[in-house]
Amino acid sequence: MKALVARKRIQIQGVVQGVGFRPFVYRIAQRLDIRGYILNSSEGVVIEAEADEDALQKFVTALTAESPSLARIDAVEVFSIDANGADRFTIDESAPIAGRFALVPPDVATCEDCLREVTSRGDRRYGYPFTNCTACGPRYTIIRDVPYDRPNTTMDEFSMCPACQAEYDDPSDRRFHAEPNACPDCGPGLALIAADQLARGMPVDFAAGSQNRIILERTRHLLEQGEIVAIKGLGGFHLACDASNDHAVSLLRERKRRSGKAFAIMARDLATAERLCLVTPAERTLLMSARRPIVLLFRREDAPISNNVAPGNTRLGVMLPYTPLHHLLFEDSRLEALVMTSGNLSEEPIVSRNQEAWPRLNGLADYFLLHNREIQIRVDDSVVQNFEGHEYPIRRSRGFVPEPVSLETPVREILACGGEMKNTLCLTKDHYAILSQHIGDLENLETMEFFRETLEHLKRFFRVSPVAVAHDLHPDYLSTRFAIEESGLQPIGVQHHHAHIASCMADNSLEGRVIGVAFDGTGYGTDGKIWGGEFLVCGFAAFERCGHLSYVALPGGDKAVRQPWRSALAYLEAAFGPDAAALPLPLFREIPPEQIAFVGAMISRRIHTFETSSCGRLFDAVASILGLRHEITYEGQAAIELEAAASQDPGTYPFEFRGDDPFRIDLRSMIRSVTGDVLSRMPVSIISARFHRTLGQVVVDACVRIRESVGLNRVCLSGGTFQNLRLLDHSVTGLRERGFEVFIHRRVPPNDGGLSLGQAMIANRRLTA
Ligand SMILES: [Zn+2]
Ligand SMILES: [Zn+2]
Q1: Could you list which residues have their CB under 5 Å from ion ligand 2?
Q2: How far apart are CA 755 and CA 473, in angstroms?
Q3: How far apart are alpha carbons 660 and 386 in whole angstroms?
Q4: Which tens digit of pLDDT belongs to each residue from 5-48?
Q5: Between the CA of residue 367 and those of 113, 208, 222, 236, what are the distances in Å?
Q6: Residue 150 C-alpha to ligand 2 middle, in angstroms?
C-alpha cells in the first residue's frame, strides 16, 4: 500500500544564506525523494516539502544533522499544510518579508577546493584571484541588502559566462547558487598601477583572463624588491611589504606615521607561521579557522622578520592568506611573510574604494594593486589571542561580523553607540545583539562617517528600527554627541565600567548579579573623576561601586596619557611626598628637570590635574619608574612593554585596603618597594613579574572582601587591561583557588570594542523596568 503523502512548511532561522544551504537542502531532497521548494527569505530560508511522513521525518532530521559547516541554525519551525501534488523539488526566487531578517554571513576564507583550482595548471581558474564557491568567499563585504542573492551584491555588475552560469544552475555543483561566482572570463579583474601614474589620473584598465596572473607575478616581483604596495583585498586596502626587509618596513613605518605600534604580518602558510613563531595546537586552530583572524603569537628569536615589525614586543600578529589573491602573492615566490597593515593613515578608517585610494593613500605606497569588485562595506582584519586553549578576542571584525551574539532572553530594538576608542556599535533585536565591525577611534570626521555608514548598513540588513539609544556618560565623546544630538532617539547614559561588566555577562549568557572587576585606561565616573580600576557589584539593571584603586593625580589629562612619566611622578609624590624628585631613578635623569618641576607644581597645586583610579595609568607609572618607557606613541604601549619584560618570579609587593563604601586600594607601599628594587638594581624582568603578581593578588583579595559582604561568588573580568594575559592568568588562577566562578570574554573583546554590547543590555533592562 502506498504511504499517505503529507506536506510541511519548514522555516529555518540562523546563518543559512551564503553558506551553501539551498544546494545542501536540494541534495537531501533528491536523496529522500522529497518534492516541493526552498527559497531564501529575508528571515532565513523557507522550505515546503511533500512526501510520506517517514521521508519527511528523515528530511527534517537531516536538515540540522548534516547541515554545511558554515551554517548556524538557530530555530526550525515545522507546520503541516495541505499537499498539492508537487512532482519535483525546486529552488525558487527569493521572497523578501518586511520587518524580519535573515542572518547575513561573515566573509569566509578560501576553501581547500578553491585553493586547489587556483594553483592547478590547466584548471580554468588557474591563477584567478577572485575564485570562490558556496563554502568560501566574500559575503558581508559585498552585500547591499538581504536576501543574499547576486542582484543584492556588488557582483551584480558582472554577468556570468555560460560555464559559470552552468555551475550556478547545477544542483550537484559546489558553485550551485554561489552568489559571487566568477572566473577569468566573466569576473572581476586586477590592475597594477604605479603611484605616479595614478597621480596623473591615468585611466585604469582591469585585466581579463590570464592577464590577472601576469599582474600578480609583477606584484610579487615588486614586493620581493622591497617596494611598498597598496593591495585592495576583501574588506579594504592593505599596505604590504616584505616583512624580512628592514628598509621597506622602516620606510612604511615612517610613511604611516605609526612610530611604535606593531604591524600585522601574513605568513605564506602554516608551516611558515610555525617557523616564525611558537604555535600551540589551539593557536594552530585559530590560524586555520575559516575566519582567519590575526593571532598574537610569541615570536621565535631567530625568526627572519625585521625588528621594526613589532618593536619592543615579544609577540607578532600573524594571519594566513584568506583570499585567492593572497595565496597567489606567495605562489612560486621567495617571500615568507608580508607586512599587511590597514591601508590608512594612523587613526583614519581603512580605505576601501578605488577612487579613494589615490587621495587617501597618496605618499604611502609605491604601487597600487586594484580590482573592480566593489567593497560595499569596509571591514578590518580581526585580532584574537589564545587563553587556556580558547579564543580571546581583541578586535572582532572580518570573519566574525555580522554574526550576532545570541542572547538568552528577547530584547527591544536598541542602538548602542559604544565608546570612543576602538569603537563598535551594537543593535539589538529578538534574541540577537548585532555588533558592528571595528570602526576605530572616533576622533575625526572620517571615522564618524564610517560609524554612520555602518549603522545604516546594519539597520537595513537586520531591519532594525531602534526605539532608544545607549551611550557613554562622557559628554565629549563623539559617540555620545551622536546619540544625544543626532540620533533622534531617547538617550540612555550608561557608566563605562558598568557597560564593560554587562558586556562580559552577556558574552557568557549570565543573568542576576555578579562581582565585576573592570580594569582599563579611562572611563568617565559618576563622581566626575576618571575611573579605571573598579570593583563593582552589578547586574544589567544597576551597579554599585564597592571599591577602586586609590585616586592619584593625572597632571595634564590627555597629556598624562601620552607621557607615562607624569603618572610616575604622581605615584612617587603620593608615596614619598616632596622628596620624590630627589630619588636617583632613571626618570629624573631622562626627563628634563624643568619639566619635572613644572608637572610637580601642577600636581601639588592641582592645576589642570584630574584624579584617577585608572589601572592603565598604574602600568604607565610602573613602566616609567622602571626606566622602561616615559613617553608612548600608541595606546597601551607602556603596559604591553611591561608585560613583555616580565620573567617568572613568585614574589609580590605589599598593598593596603582603606575605608569602605567604596574601599580604596592603597598602592603606595607597592610603589615604595618597586622603587627600592629599582634602586638596588633588581632586574626589570623580576620587578615586572612581581608587579603583575601583586595586581593579581589585589583582584583576588578585593573579590574575597566583596564576597564576604554580599555573598556573590561569580566574578566577571573585563576592560582593556585584561588583554594582558599575565595579569589575566594570575587573576583567574587566584580567584579559582579561592573558589570563585570566573567569567572572561569569549565572543567580544574585553577592551572598548565590547562596550556597545554591555550598553545595549543595560539600556534594554532600563526600558523594560
Ligand atoms: Zn571555495
Ligand atoms: Zn565565468
Answers
A1: 161, 164, 183, 185-186
A2: 12
A3: 37
A4: 999 999 998 888 878 888 889 989 999 999 999 988 877 899 99
A5: 31, 20, 9, 16
A6: 14
